[in-house]
């Protein structure tokens, strides 16, 4: 039989497991949660617009972290 073990010490695995990438993703999720909270906190069209912008910025930051993992 052939040895089909996964090699977890490859360069791409080391890059994908960097803590900075996961910190970026957590930061993006926290910003998105803040934007979601602000959407329901008050009833103002200005705050609603700002909260949507914050929500999308948080989502973009989190997706950027995911793409860094996929690029590895």
Summarize, please:
This protein is mainly alpha-helical and 72 residues long. Helices cover 78% and strands 0% of the residues. α2 (19-41) packs antiparallel against α3 (45-71).
Task: Kindly describe this structure.
With 72 residues, the chain is mostly helical. The chain has one domain. The protein is 78% helix and 0% strand. Helix 2 packs antiparallel against helix 3. The two termini are 30 Å apart.
List the helices and strands and how they pair.
Elements: H1 11-16, H2 19-41, H3 45-71
Helix pairs in contact: 2-3
Total of domains: 1
Structural class: mainly alpha
Question: Main beta sheet, described?
Answer: none
Count of DSSP-assigned helices: 3
Helix-residue proportion: over 70%
Q: Helices and strands, in N-to-C order?
A: HHH
- Head-to-tail CA distance between termini: 30 Å
- Report the portion of residues in β strands: under 5%
Global geometry: rod-shaped
Enumerate the spans where pLDDT stays under 50 for 5 or more consecutive residues: none
Summarize model confidence as the mean pLDDT: 86
What's the count of strands? 0
Radius of gyration: 18 Å
């Amino acid at each position: 039989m052939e040895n089909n073990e996964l090699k977890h010490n490859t360069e791409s695995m080391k890059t994908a497991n960097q803590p900075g990438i996961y910190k970026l993703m957590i930061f993006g999720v926290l910003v998105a949660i803040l934007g979601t909270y602000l959407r329901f906190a008050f009833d103002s069209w200005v705050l609603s617009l700002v909260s949507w912008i914050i929500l999308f910025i948080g989502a973009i930051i989190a997706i950027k972290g995911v793409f860094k993992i996929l690029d590895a």
